[in-house]
Design goal:
GST_omega, alpha+beta, four-stranded mixed beta sheet, two-stranded antiparallel ribbon, glutathione transferase activity, about 10% strand, 6 strands, globular, disordered N terminus, 10 helices
């Protein structure tokens, strides 16, 4: 945490103020304007308070969109600690070394204004350049274009199209199969078979590609879009005894081992125990979206539509004002 000491005896501070700031009436702190009185002592107090605000960036504190960013930060990401969809955005921001403000949302206690930025009340939501985007794949592609270095998509349009085929198959088929089996809570034969079928498709993609990653010779966009659920598959082993066997899926097993060596994946990894506890609560219909936070909020017991952090349709809408 940044510590700032303000005193009348600070010659550097007083010199800077007397040279440039003493005649100003407004200062900008990361986009927000603050009224500054003429007196030097008052100016010091206002400046110190803003530095304190900027330095206290608890990821579990629900900051509003107009809250100031820390110096150097360029965007704000509304996420949820265990959400794999939001993890897609975190992976890309980490890969591109973007400095941003992470805000974990308690999806049981979303503020009314959050629906102005995503009418579905879901994460991720990315605020950047006085605008916002939502939906995980749309947000990820926005990050790729807004922060072009390093490039995570292939510049070859055909190769890029095939990357989209890989992660779109997993998104449309693999993810629903993953959650279906997870919700069962045991090794239900049909659900197990269905998930294996789509894992087998991903194995086939890698085998035909003949390269170590879905992106090619290096980890890239498609790998990061697929990875969050393969990070969570060990949870299925704990709950449903589902496993990716190396002899059955040699290419996928090798890919998983390589991904665990990627610095970005390690930076964005989820605590395995917290993940297991989180999904165990999901299955009981009593989710705690603040699990792992320093001060978890009280859990609101309610039925869930699915395991992605969505509330029941009847409670997903904007809070009604009486």
């Amino acid at each position: 945490m940044l510590s700032v000491r303000m005193s009348r005896s600070s010659s550097v501070f007083n010199a800077v103020l007397s040279a440039s700031l003493i005649k100003l009436r407004t200062l900008k702190f990361s986009g927000s304007q603050v009224w500054v009185p003429s007196k030097l002592t008052h100016l010091k107090v206002v400046y110190a308070r803003n530095l304190k605000t900027c330095s206290t960036m608890n990821p579990d504190e629900m900051r509003t969109p107009n809250a100031p960013l820390l110096p150097g930060q360029v965007c704000r990401l509304y996420s949820m600690r265990m959400c794999p969809y939001a993890q897609r955005a975190r992976l890309l921001l980490a890969a591109k070394k973007v400095s941003y403000d992470l805000v974990n949302v308690d999806l049981n206690k979303k503020p009314d204004w959050f629906f102005d930025y995503n009418p579905y009340g879901e994460v991720p939501v990315l605020l950047h350049n006085n605008g916002y985007v939502y939906e995980s794949l749309i947000t990820a592609e926005y990050i790729e274009e807004a922060f072009p270095e390093p490039k995570l998509y292939s510049v070859d349009p055909l190769v890029r199209a095939h990357e989209k085929i890989y992660f779109n198959h997993w998104t449309k088929k693999g993810i629903p199969a993953f959650y279906s089996l997870l919700k069962m809570g045991y090794a239900e034969p049909e659900a197990t078979k269905r998930l294996h079928q789509h894992v087998e498709v991903m194995e086939g993609f890698l085998k035909k590609l003949g390269k170590p990653y879905f992106h090619g010779h290096t980890v890239g966009f498609s790998d990061y879009m697929i990875w969050p659920w393969f990070e969570r598959i060990p949870v299925l082993k704990d709950i449903n005894d589902f496993n990716i066997c190396p002899t059955t899926y040699p290419n996928l097993t090798a890919w998983i081992e390589r991904m665990w060596k990627d610095p970005v994946v390690l930076e964005c990894r989820i605590d395995p125990k917290l993940m297991t506890d989180h999904y165990a609560q999901y299955r009981t219909g009593k989710p705690d979206f603040t699990i792992g936070a320093e001060k978890p909020a009280q859990v609101i017991q309610e039925p869930l539509e699915n395991l992605d952090g969505l509330r029941d349709p009847s409670t997903r809408d904007r809070i009604k004002k009486e």
